[in-house]
Amino acid sequence: MPDARTADPRVASAIAHWAPRFVANGITLTDFQEVTASIRSWDEWCARWSARADIHAALGCEALSKRQFVSAAEHLSRAAVTYHFAKFLFVDDVPQMKVAHMKAVECHKLALPHLDPPGEYLRIPYQGKSLSAVLRKPRGVTRPPVVVMAMGLDSAKEEMLAYQATFLARGMATLTFDGPGQGEAEYDFPIRGDYEVAVKAVIDWVETRIDLDPAHIGLWGVSLGGYYAPRACAFEKRIKACIALAGPYDWLGIWDQLPELTRAAFRVRSHAHDEIAAKQNAATLSLQGVADKIECPIFIVSGRLDRIVPPEEVERLAAEVKGPCELLIIPDGNHVANNRPYRYRPQTADWMAERLGAAPR
Questions:
Q1: What is the pLDDT of residues 78-115, one digit of tens each?
Q2: Are residues 215 and 67 part of one domain?
Q3: Hey, how many other C-beta atoms are within 10 angstroms of the C-beta on 314?
């Protein structure tokens, strides 16, 4: 429950609504409880979470120095996701946010070689610069199918280990990338509604790898990525199957009901100078006239209690797609059903494995 001494409504909202996501994606419950209980003002958010992340990072570096690589991977991965949540919506102070962000990236890089299976940090050419990404491949599989993973408004590749695990365990590689307006790319490239441009660059890169199967590519997206992934599938026909988690159909249509922190993050990450410009950018994120071009199989998930993206948004998408569609709305699920991950994470991974022809494991 929110602390009665918390006067800042943004902090109170965070305490009330974010625990399921934090815990499902790598934050211990006690860390969430203790850190949020210490915060009275949103201005303190990044520093308090970074201080807790520092503890995990120090443990990870100590384990590395002792060549205790399993422990190092655990500590550094937790440090990375903790730094990530220090910065994820902290756009009022971009310099402070970026310091925490770069610590998240560095801890994640240090952890990657020691994960099971290990990860490869890489850069994918994109519009004269590049997009950062992480590739992980299942053990014992030659040229596996690959699930390309699209982030949301406030997520980044450092938050994705739990999601990756469900696909890796079923014989699929994961390619998790920071696209325009996301993670490491947010400083160079603004959010764009035509996300298929970024996905094309990523799939072009997949086709250069001899250790991946470019004939069996799936696309997965979470939250705003649940818009990006279906949008890309409408235009990029190399994608064989799509999973869309709690994505909007029409971002501008739900703009006024979005939380204050979400609107602010969109403004900054779409490189808009004010809210009027942000709403103009928001208008470019729509599946109107696009959804009926989606022909590949798609699995759409939402929570009936979602207070950010109403389930009616995904129902509209499901009604308009041309290809095979499975729709799962979890009656007691919140945004992305992070409070009920067991109701969809294994199920969607099994579904993707079947569509991509992953070898049974």
A1: 999 999 999 999 999 999 999 999 999 999 999 999 99
A2: no
A3: 27
Contact 300, 314 (CB under 8 A): yes
Q: What is the CATH number of the domain that holds 249?
A: 3.40.50.1820
Q: What pLDDT sits at residue 7? A: 66
Q: How far apart are CA 93 and CA 250, in angstroms?
A: 29
The pTM assigned to this predicted structure is: 0.95
pLDDT score at 77: 98
Residues recognised as catalytic? 223
Measure the CA–CA gap between 135 and 70, rounded to whole angstroms: 19
Give the helix/strand (H/E) hosting 31.
helix 29-37
Mean pLDDT of 30-47: 96
**Per-residue pLDDT tens for 179-198?**
999 999 999 999 999 999 99
Query: Which residue, of 75, 91, 115, is where some domain finishes?
Result: 115
Question: Which pLDDT score is estimated for 246?
Answer: 98
Q: Nearest CA to 266 among 256, 253, 281?
A: 281
Q: What are the distances in angstroms from CA 334 to CA 132, 255, 301, 304, 339? A: 30, 18, 11, 7, 6
| Last residue within a domain, chosen from 115, 144, 174 | 115
In which domain, by residue range, is 78 found?
1-115
Count: domains in the chain: 2
